[in-house]
Amino acid sequence: MDSNKSGHGEENERRIEHIENLVEKKTRTERHLEENAEISHSPSNIQHAKELQKERQSEIDHLKDKVIYGDSISNNQKENTEKRLVFTEGYLNHNADHMKKEDFENAKAKQERRKDQLDSMK
Fold first, then answer.
1. Burial (0-12, 13-18, 19+ Cβ within 10 Å), 99
2. Per-residue pLDDT reduced to its tens digit, 24-80
3. 118: buried, middle or exposed (CB in 10 Å: 19+, 13-18, 0-12)?
4. What is the pTM of this model?
C-alpha cells in the first residue's frame, strides 16, 4: 500500500512541476503579447498565441483536477479530446484541398497539441 501512495505522490509531484512549467510559459507569452501587441505584423500570430494560451490554461486546470481529485475525473476530458482529434483529422483529410494554407497549418498544430494533451493524460 505504501508503494502505491508513493507512486501517487511522485506522479502528483510531476504533475505539479508540469503545472509550474505551463504557468511560466503562459505568463511569458502573456507578457510578450502585452508588450508587442502593437508591433506585431501578423494578427494570425497573435490569434495563434491566444489559442495556445487557452489550451495551456485548459491543461493547467486538468492537471490541477487530477492532483486534487485523482484520475477518475480525467475520463470525460480524455474522451472529448480523443473525439476532437479524430473528428478534426477526418475534417482535415477531407477538406485540406479547400482550406487556406495558414488555416490548415494552424489546425495541424492544434492537432499536435491535442496529441500532447492526450499523452499528458495517461
1. middle
2. 988 988 888 777 765 556 777 777 777 788 888 888 887 887 787 776 655 677 788
3. middle
4. 0.49
